[in-house]
């Protein structure tokens, strides 16, 4: 029983730290001007993140803008990434 409780507490702590780090990274990128302000993002910002090599942030921003799930956002960002680099 003690092992299970310890495992659950460890898992919860890991999840909290992981999510806090993601929030910290986005706030840092907002301060640097890489990630757009809340409720002010456009598809152009997603494209800019792709061109900067920050595909993971582009997926997250795409999800924020369009309210889609992770799989749909990854698929859309990958298609956008192909079109961006085909044109350059």
Task: State the main characteristics.
88 residues; single chain
The H/E string reads HHHH
Query: How many distinct folded domains?
Result: 2
End-to-end distance: 59 Å
What assembly state would you assign to the polypeptide chains in this entry?
single chain
Characterize the overall form.
elongated
Low-confidence stretches: none
Largest sheet: none
Class derived from helix and strand content? mainly alpha
Whole-number average pLDDT?
Answer: 91
Radius of gyration: 17 Å
Share in helix: over 70%
> Total helix count?
4
Total strands: 0
Topology:
Elements: H1 2-32, H2 43-51, H3 55-66, H4 70-87
Helix pairs in contact: 2-3, 2-4, 3-4
Descriptive notes:
- There is one protein chain.
- The chain has helices spanning 2-32, 43-51, 55-66, 70-87.
- With 88 residues, it is mostly helical.
- It has two domains: 1-32; 36-88.
Describe, in short, the structure shown.
This protein has 88 residues and is mostly helical. Helix content is 80%, strand content 0%.
């Amino acid at each position: 029983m003690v092992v299970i409780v310890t495992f659950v507490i460890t898992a919860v702590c890991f999840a909290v730290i992981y999510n806090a780090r993601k929030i910290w990274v986005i706030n840092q990128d907002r301060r640097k001007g890489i990630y757009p302000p809340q409720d002010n993002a456009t598809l152009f910002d997603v494209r800019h993140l792709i061109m900067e090599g920050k595909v993971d942030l582009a997926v997250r921003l795409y999800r924020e803008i369009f309210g889609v799930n992770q799989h749909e956002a990854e698929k859309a960002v990958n298609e956008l990434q192909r079109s961006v680099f085909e044109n350059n």
